[in-house]
C-alpha cells in the first residue's frame, strides 16, 4: 500500500500559522489577566492570598509583554519590506 505524500507547507504558511498561534496565546493571556485582576480584588481582605494573586498577575503581565515582543520580531520590518 502506497502512502500519499503531501507537499510540505511553504515557509510563508508556517510563518502565518506561528503568528496565529502567538496571537491566540496573547488573546488567552489577556483574558487570564482580566480574570486574575478580578480574583485579586476578591481576595483583597486576605493579605496572603492577595499578595500571591498580585505576584501571579505580575508574572502574567511579564509573559504577555514577552509574547508581544516575540510577535513583533516575527513581523517583517517596515524598512525591509520597502527595500531600504
Helix percent band? over 70%
Instruction: Report the biggest beta sheet as strand number plus sense, adding barrel if it closes.
Output: none
N-C termini distance: 53 Å
Class based on secondary structure composition and strand pairing = mainly alpha
Query: Can you tell me the residue ranges where pLDDT is under 50 for at least 5 consecutive residues?
Result: none
Shape: elongated
Quantity of strands, as a count: 0
Radius of gyration: 20 Å
Helix segment count?
A: 3
Strand content: under 5%
Mean pLDDT: 86
Taken in chain order, the helices and strands follow as HHH
Question: How would you briefly describe this protein structure?
Answer:
Helix content is 77%, strand content 0%.
Structure description:
The protein is mainly alpha-helical and 84 residues long. The longest helix is centred in the N-terminal third of the chain and has 32 residues, at 11-42. The model has no long low-confidence stretch (mean pLDDT 86). The chain has a domain at 26-74. It is 77% helix and 0% strand. The chain is built from 3 helices and no strands. Helix 1 (11-42) packs antiparallel against helix 2. The chain has helices at residues 11-42, 47-74, 78-82. The chain starts with 10 loop residues before the first helix and ends with a helix.
What are the salient characteristics of this protein?
3 helices; 77% helix; 84 residues; elongated
Any chance you could write out the topology, listing elements then pairs?
Layout: H1 11-42, H2 47-74, H3 78-82
Helix pairs in contact: 1-2
Amino acid at each position: 500500500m502506497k502512502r500519499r505524500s503531501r507537499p510540505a507547507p511553504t515557509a510563508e504558511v508556517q510563518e502565518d500559522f506561528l503568528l496565529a498561534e502567538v496571537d491566540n496565546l496573547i488573546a488567552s493571556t489577556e483574558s487570564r489577566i482580566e480574570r486574575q485582576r478580578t480574583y485579586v480584588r476578591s481576595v483583597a481582605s486576605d493579605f496572603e492570598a492577595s499578595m500571591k494573586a498580585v505576584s501571579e498577575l505580575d508574572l502574567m503581565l511579564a509573559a504577555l509583554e514577552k509574547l508581544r515582543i516575540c510577535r513583533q520580531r516575527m513581523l517583517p520590518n517596515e524598512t525591509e519590506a520597502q527595500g531600504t
